[in-house]
Specification:
The protein has 71 residues and is mostly helical. It has three helices and no strands.
């Protein structure tokens, strides 16, 4: 687990000021890219396998923020 670094912003903090429409757009775009990467992974190889994990986390962060705003 990464250590806490004072003064360093979290990835979620960068997403908080965005409007809900922008967050939904990011979820859609990341989902499309994730689908493309999964297809490329199944048919051959992908150059950056860590990108799959990063995209999944970005989608989860955006969906979490959208859900928090609904509550």
């Amino acid at each position: 687990m990464p250590k806490f670094t004072p003064g360093k912003t979290s990835p979620a903090a960068a997403l908080r000021p965005l409007a809900p429409a922008e967050l939904e757009k990011r979820v859609r775009e990341a989902g499309d890219e994730l689908l493309q990467l999964r297809l490329r992974k199944a048919t051959g190889g992908i150059e950056n396998p860590a990108r799959l994990r990063a995209l999944r986390r970005e989608v989860a962060r955006c969906r979490t923020l959208l859900r928090q705003r609904q509550a």
